[in-house]
Amino acid sequence: MLRYRVQSSSNNTANTNTNTNTNTNTNTNNGNHLHNKKKNKNPAKKSLKNLHNRQLNIIDFPIEVIDNICDNISISDIISLSSTCSNLKRKVEHNIYNYIRILDIDHIIDEDEIIIQKHFGSFKDESLENESWWVYNNISNVTNTKNILMLFYNVLMNPNLGKYIKTIEINLILKPSPWNRCKSSNNSKNNLSIWNKSLSNFFTFEELNQINIDPNLTLFDCLIMLLDFTPNLENLIVSKFSLFDVSKLIVKTPNLKQLKIMIYENDTFVELPLQNLKNLKKLRLKFQENTEDLLNNLVLNFAKFNILSKLEVLQLKYDKTDFNHLSNPTWFSFFKPLLKFNVIIFKSLKRLELKDCFFGSNQQEIISNLLCLIPFNQIEWLSLQIYEYSHKNIKHSTCKNDIYNNTTLSYLSPHLSNLKSIRIKPTKNCKSCQIDSILKFFNDHKNLENIWLSTDSLNKINYMKILDTFQNYKKILRLAYFDEFINHKLINNLKNWFMFEHKIMDFDIFRCYESEILRQDIDPIFNCYRIDEFKNFNERERNLLVLFWQHFLNEFGLDSLLTKSNQHELGMKLFGYNFKVDKVRKVILLYISKEVGYIDLIYY
């Protein structure tokens, strides 16, 4: 909360005039000025004392400070600040409506999920909270049907508020149990969905009569009405709805820059009205298996209105419901119909993500086709979480040398001349081929600035080769490194350190570490941790944790990795923990939690 009071504008004006008159008299009366100068040896000290003794006004703060506060405080503080005076309300109110996230109101936690959450820990994601100044997104979460209607009604009654809404997100909830996701994901077209229920199911007749709204309207109808008052909406993230519902939404959103939708296995293709989407730059598609025909028709729908050539970001993500099941290369169906045009289609593309996408053993053929459609020489950001086989059903030891390079990364590498950021996740590839491919790739691309590598180096020799490669990077800003080989050693070291050497018997390796690394390896965040148990333990045992990492960083060569970058401040996530390097103070810092922040670890 902000800790100063704001006086009325009339008082502010009076104080401004008083200060102006005082300054004028002081400047014109030279004799008194000299006399005061002799009498008060330290006028600045007296000025500070006077400032301390009187109540601060909003005008005492530089306008840049006020702007910075208003742009970075949390949603809860914005609401409090907006109630102080009309001037500040006008200044901060737009932040309340900027990003609207409507949580999955169809979701009901069942007994199986409760048991899973108790085992895995409480997944409280700080990146989605709004309690700290560093949170990169101030998001207003709408959590139930009544709040949804209050949002709609507030905008309908105050249309000027609608112009502040730039993002609307309505996603399926990410549940810990994939089988529950499978059961619930097909509800997009189901009439039992809460979005298709009328308002009379949620509100009394008196409540509906008081706000003068038709009780037969559904929540989805209200969403359509809301879009009529959002002329500046740029991001529509709606993987909750079918293509038929999406077609109704995007006809109301001509200024979209980002669109995320879901392609369901049981969905029916509907041609989307894309003729007005002249500004779309980012397309994100989630898809289930057996959606090849839908993806074929959808990409031709986008090509018809010349949208693909203007895209700068493309994300394809398979909605995996079984961890052990690999499907056909369904995702490639989005590109296949475009090959007949025999030209580069994605002329403006700079960021490409393939998540949980299956290649099988056809990497060379698929990459060859993609090269006909995508100018990889201008790709700046690439994310690959794919499944492939460099030599399916053949032992690594019996392979010929040319088979070692049969990986997606090796085929793409020569064409990525402008790459700045890379994300690589484990694959179903031969691990020996995978680590060889990774080592060669990073040795060939030493100008990378942001790296997220999740792999298994297999042995200390490969591990040291990875560290040596990263130490030669001169432009690196962020590095997230997850390594199964080192992770096993780290787990044993943590157990020995806390349980056996220091007798902390409540140390639960899963709750206090493994649950955190599982979550961070999904999407690493450098400014926070995700699991409550992990954060709480770090705070309670921070002194022992510092001693542990002082020894562990040195033992595994990580201290030299952290200090050899030429950047002023380097952020690293190593095996789930956050580190930072301050080049001015020459110190490596360890992040404990949001409440504690970073603490000094090693001076060098």
UniProtKB/TrEMBL annotation:
Residues 55-102 form the F-box domain. Residues 1-44 are annotated as: Disordered. Residues 34-44 have a biased composition (Basic residues). InterPro entries: F-box_dom. It comes from the Eukaryota. Residues 10-33 have a biased composition (Low complexity). This is F-box domain-containing protein.
